[in-house]
Amino acid sequence: MNTVPQRFEILLVPEHVEDRGGASVEDTAVRSAVVEATGRRGESGYPIYEGHGMRADLDPETRTVEALLVDGRELDYGLTALVRPAARG
What we know:
about 90 residues; mainly beta; seven-stranded antiparallel β-sheet; 7 strands; about 0% helix
C-alpha cells in the first residue's frame, strides 16, 4: 500500500507583507495550484509533482519544496512556496 500523498496544493505567497488586514497567509497567496505525483523523481531525489503550470520536487513527509518551477521558470524573489494537502473532491 502506497502511503505517499498523491496530491498537494502549492501556494505562492509574498515573503514580506506589512499588514495582511487579518487575512491568513493562505488567503494572501498570489497563485496556487494542485499538483499530482508523476511517479518520477527529480534531481533532488524527491518525487516530482506537477499541475497547473507548476513542477515541484517535494518531500511528501515534511512538505518541503526542494525545487520549484512556475511556468517553466524559477520562483521570483520575494515569493515563498507553502504546501498543504489538496482538498478532496
